[in-house]
Amino acid sequence: MSKVVELERVLELVKDGMVVMIGGFLAVGTPETIIDKLVEKGVKDLTIICNDTAFPDKGIGKLVVNKQVKRVITSHIGTNPETGRQMNAGEMEVDLVPQGTLAERIRAAGAGLGGILTPTGIGTVVEEGKEKILVNNKEYLLELPLKADIALLRGSKVDAKGNVWYNNATRNFNPLMATAADVVIVEAEEIVETGDIDANNVVTSGIFVDYIVKEGK
Domain for residue 140, yes or no? Predict the structure, then answer.
């Protein structure tokens, strides 16, 4: 059975106050069509989990500029001045997480783990409020899993059952996020028939994908 649906169908699933993972690295591999429609829809009070907030006029940055985000959990914000401005003005909460830790917290949720242990952040503001665990006389921070209500991803080539191939750097956080959300929506650059993607090239298995929409629709 095909998982391809009209864009309007998936927009109905994204509601005010949800926790939403969005793939991409500086908007590369980000589902731009879905984001543009969410801006039009005006869904608000979102918590966004992402690698970065892209640029004011691109990717996740559009949601930030439109003040649809109440909290962002991310690894850096330097390319989007509006994110920093809203953070400093108290208009949006920004939770900065080291990039590797962010990836592992998402992976932990997808793998059903209770958390990860990492030395990253020991002795810095990152450790504030977190449990420390001693392993072989070395201190680690316990970092908890990150899970979302919905993941919005982008695939270069997606078949009708949801198997995904990502071209080069567009892969980034997309495969991890596909495992760590209750509902996974993939915006496809190209939709192909089941079997058209060589099994060796499938990065995200269709078992993780709930809906597929065509880019630009």
Answer: no
Alpha helices (H) along 1-95: 7-11, 32-41, 60-65, 81-88
The pLDDT of 1-14, averaged and rounded, is: 93
Q: How many domains does the chain have?
A: 1
Predicted local confidence at residue 217, as pLDDT: 66
Supply φ then ψ for residue 93, to 5 degrees: -85, 130
13, exposed or middle or buried, with CB in 10 Å at 0-12, 13-18, 19+? Answer: middle
Q: Is residue 62 part of a domain?
A: yes
**Structural domain boundaries enclosing 30:** 7-112+147-214
pLDDT digits (tens, 9 = 90+) for 94-134: 999 999 999 999 999 999 999 999 999 999 988 999 999 99
pTM value is 0.95
